Amino acid sequence: MRLILMGPPGAGKGTQARYVADHFGVPAISTGDIFRANVSQGTPLGVEAKRYMDAGEYVPDEVTNLMVRNRIDEDDAAPGFLLDGYPRTLAQVTELDGMIEFTGHRLDAVVVLTVDSEELVQRLLQRAQTDGRADDTEDVIRRRQEIYLEQTEPLIGVYRERGILVEVDGMGEVDDVTARIFAALDEIPQS
Ligand code: AP5
């Protein structure tokens, strides 16, 4: 399976990604997690990414695309993968298309989690108290939401036109959301 998990900040992408990836036996690849790992290790990539992440802005496409290309080339992603948080721009969609086409495979489905905007903010403010993520302040959360609406939400239409969009209600208990995702994806023929 080659899957994308999309949704606004706080929709539950990271939470659900691990269950979905386990279910299909593929790695969950989170661009946010890879950036954060680089930030904490102080790598040049981390130093560059941090200034965008802390402001709630997207890391430039060329940086992100190269990072994903390298990750997808790793052996564990040969049978498939679940992308959490990539692509987020139209340029990233085009780049990913090229990466997948090069391997002779296709994208099976794009799952979009939908969650009320106030619930999103509440989830992230709550996480701020427990995890202390640098981008979980109220101002930065609002900026992340704006950027999502401007740059990433339009991707939903692109994938809908391709007939591979799966919209899943992301409200409610984590287990219930997982069950909805499985029910929707189990209908999809695997490549
Ligand atoms: P990233 O880490 O992907 O952040 P995000 O998109 O803002 O998403 P979050 O991690 O905040 O939310 P999520 O949807 O994963 O929800 P989660 O499961 O964590 O990216 C961070 C930054 O990296 C970006 O802002 C950007 O700068 C950069 N970046 C990343 N990808 C990029 C790209 N492709 N291009 C350019 N830049 C990029 O859940 C959130 C909270 O809610 C958790 O506390 C969780 O426990 C809780 N929760 C989850 N589900 C439920 C539920 N059902 N009920 C109650 N609480 C729940």
Automatic annotation (TrEMBL):
Pfam families in the record: ADK
Binding site for ATP: 10-15, 127, 172
Keyword Phosphoprotein among record annotations: no
Domain of life: Bacteria
Annotated residues for binding of AMP: 31, 36, 57-59, 85-88, 92, 133, 144
EC number: 2.7.4.3
Reactions that this protein is recorded to catalyse: AMP + ATP = 2 ADP
One example GO MF annotation: kinase activity
Leader peptide range in chain numbering: none
Function: Catalyzes the reversible transfer of the terminal phosphate group between ATP and AMP. Plays an important role in cellular energy homeostasis and in adenine nucleotide metabolism.
Subunit field text: Monomer.
The protein, known as: Adenylate kinase
